[in-house]
Automatic annotation (TrEMBL):
Pfam families: His_biosynth (PF00977). Heterodimer of HisH and HisF. It is found in: Cytoplasm. Gene3D superfamilies: Aldolase class I. One of its GO terms (molecular function) is lyase activity. Belongs to the HisA/HisF family. It catalyses: 5-[(5-phospho-1-deoxy-D-ribulos-1-ylimino)methylamino]-1-(5-phospho-beta-D-ribosyl)imidazole-4-carboxamide + L-glutamine = D-erythro-1-(imidazol-4-yl)glycerol 3-phosphate + 5-amino-1-(5-phospho-beta-D-ribosyl)imidazole-4-carboxamide + L-glutamate + H(+). The keyword Nucleus does not apply. The keyword Ribonucleoprotein does not apply. It comes from Salegentibacter salinarum. This is Imidazole glycerol phosphate synthase subunit HisF. GO terms for biological process: L-histidine biosynthetic process. The active site is at 11, 130. Its main location: cytoplasm. The gene is hisF.
Amino acid sequence: MLTKRIIPCLDIKNGRTVKGVNFEDLRDAGDPVELAEIYAKSGADELVFLDISATEEKRKTLANLVRRVAEKVNIPFTVGGGISSVEDVDILLKNGADKVSVNSSAVKNPDLVNELAAKFGSQCITVAIDAKEINGEWMVHLVGGKVPTDLNLFQWAKEVEERGAGEILFTSMNNDGTKAGFANKALAVLSSELNIPVIASGGAGNMQHFCDTFIEGKADAALAASVFHFKEIEIKDLKEELRRNGVEVRL
């Protein structure tokens, strides 16, 4: 039985870690290199870095940050934000990233997923999907949730799996930053329809929420930010609680 993964997420803006609610009202959460090192030592299974204000000019800055993090951590980490080409991915992997996450660029150019999977292998390619439940239907949104599309979450997830994605990072915009729990019903549907791992994101507020997303949502991994950044939950304590609830984790 595969162990479930706990993944702190570092949203990066102008070289700093930030956190907001429903993708807005950002506040500073610290230096990403320092935080990455702390998480690696405290039992995190992986890290995710998302440059939430990425532009082409910042690619070199992000690559430099990736290299500095890679020197400090011994766990896999995924980097996303503004990645739109094979060249972008090549730069990040050469600087120490283990995986990359693509989101808007995959929606705009679905063939990009095929290209990246063919070039680097599916195990390197995470497709991040930000979706919002509107009138009972989960719809994909872009640009940090600001731009709606006519794509259905489940259909899009299935398509990118078929195109070669190695895992899905699903963020519920309805739940993000609310600390009211993950979108477990949607996660359970995703997990049942896909053959690749699904990472739950958006809504972590307490340890029970993590238990619920693994048991009810059938998620393979759970990602969170503020509860870790602001020391509301310690990863070691969380993993012990998950074990007590019958969830297999790496201690």
